[in-house]
UniProtKB/TrEMBL annotation:
Domain of life: Bacteria
Pfam families the UniProt entry points to: PTE (PF02126)
Keywords: Hydrolase, Metal-binding
Residues modified to N6-carboxylysine: K132
Protein name, per record: Phosphotriesterase
Family of the protein in this entry: Belongs to the metallo-dependent hydrolases superfamily. Phosphotriesterase family.
InterPro entries: Metal_Hydrolase (IPR032466), Phosphotriesterase (IPR001559)
Organism of derivation: Streptomyces similanensis
Length: 303
C-alpha cells in the first residue's frame, strides 16, 4: 500500500503536493452567510491562478456535504490552473443546513462519507480526500457528536483524515476526547482548525501534545481581534517542538475575502503570512509547514 493524497484528479504521492494552502474554500454556500456565497467558477479559477502565480501548488477545500462544494467543477479548475485540489466530505454544524438535510442523512451518515471518499461525490466520480466536521462553542452538541461518530467510522473504514472546525477556536480538548479517546481515531489523523481564534497558549500546547495537527488560518474580518496573535502562537508551538504538526491556510469563506475581489484570499498566505512567519520560525521551518507537513497530514494508506 502506497500513501497518497486523494486529489480531485486522483491519488498523488505526498512529495508532489508542494506548497499547500491546507484549509481554504473555492466554493461555499451557507444560509448563515446570505449574499456572500462563494459560488462563481470563473472567480474560483482566478483565485486559484493567483495562488499559483504567488508560488502555490495545492489547495485543500474544507467545504463539506450540502454547502455548495461544486465537486464537478473542481477537476477542470485544477487542470486549468495547475493547482492540486483536495476536497472534503463531512458535515458542518446544524445551523448551516435547512432542517431536512441532516434529517435525510439519519442512519446513513458514515456510509455517505465513505462513499464520497471511495466512489465519489454524487455521480461526479470526484473523490473526497478528508472528512470535515465541526465542534461547538466550548462544547459539543448532539449534532456534533453524531457527525464526529460518523467521521470516526469513515476514518476507520478508509484511513481518511478528519478535519475539525473549532467554533471560535474552542472545545479542542472535547473534540480530542471524543474523536481520539472514545472513538479511537489516531491523533495524527485529526486536524484541528481555527485554534488561532482562541489564542490560549496552554490550550494550544495541550492539544499539540495529543499528536494531532494544528491548522492555523485566516486572516478574516470576523476574527480580526485575534488574527494578529497567530505568529506568536505558531512560534510558541514551534519552540515547544511541535513544528512538524503545524499547518497553514487562508480559509476564504466569503466572496469579499477573495483576492480577485480585493481581499486577502489565497495568495495572502504566500505574499504576507509566509514572510511574517519566517521572521518568527525561520524560512526553513515555514517551508516545512507549507510542504512536508501537509503531505504527511493528508496522505493516507487508502483502504
Ligand atoms: Zn473553513
Amino acid at each position: 500500500m502506497v500513501s497518497a493524497v486523494r486529489t480531485v484528479l486522483g491519488d498523488l504521492p505526498p512529495a508532489e503536493l508542494g506548497v499547500t494552502d491546507s484549509h481554504d474554500h473555492l466554493f461555499f454556500r451557507s444560509p448563515r452567510l446570505p449574499g456572500q456565497e462563494l459560488d462563481d467558477a470563473p472567480a474560483a479559477r482566478a483565485e486559484l491562478a493567483a495562488f499559483r502565480a504567488a508560488g502555490g501548488s495545492a489547495v485543500v477545500q474544507w467545504t463539506p456535504y450540502g454547502l455548495g462544494r461544486r465537486a464537478a467543477d473542481l477537476p477542470p479548475l485544477s487542470r486549468a490552473t495547475g493547482v492540486h485540489v483536495v476536497c472534503a466530505t463531512g458535515l458542518h454544524q446544524d445551523v448551516h443546513y435547512a432542517e431536512d438535510t441532516p434529517a435525510a442523512l439519519r442512519g446513513r451518515l458514515a456510509d455517505v462519507f465513505v462513499a464520497e471518499l471511495t466512489e465519489g461525490i454524487g455521480d461526479t466520480g470526484v473523490r473526497a480526500g478528508l472528512v470535515k466536521v465541526a465542534g461547538g462553542f466550548h462544547g459539543l452538541d448532539a449534532h456534533a457528536r453524531w457527525t464526529m461518530t460518523a467521521a470516526a467510522e469513515a476514518h476507520h473504514a478508509t484511513g481518511a483524515p478528519v478535519a475539525v472546525h473549532l467554533e471560535m477556536g474552542t472545545a479542542a480538548l472535547d473534540v480530542l476526547d471524543l474523536l481520539c479517546g472514545e472513538l479511537e481515531v489516531p491523533p495524527h489523523r485529526v486536524i484541528l482548525g481555527h485554534l488561532n481564534r482562541f489564542p490560549d497558549s496552554v490550550l494550544h500546547r495541550q492539544a499539540a501534545e495529543s499528536g494531532c495537527y494544528l491548522a492555523f488560518d485566516g486572516p478574516s474580518r470576523t476574527h480580526h481581534a485575534t488574527d494578529w496573535r497567530m505568529p506568536d502562537a505558531v512560534r510558541a508551538l514551534a519552540e515547544g517542538g511541535f513544528g512538524d504538526r503545524l499547518l497553514l491556510g487562508g480559509d476564504t469563506v466569503v466572496a469579499a475575502a477573495r483576492s480577485v475581489d480585493g481581499g486577502p484570499g489565497m495568495p495572502y498566505l504566500l505574499r504576507r503570512v509566509r514572510p511574517r512567519l519566517a521572521a518568527e520560525l525561520g524560512a526553513d521551518l515555514v517551508e516545512q509547514v507549507l510542504t512536508e507537513n501537509p503531505g504527511r497530514a493528508f496522505a493516507v494508506d487508502w483502504r
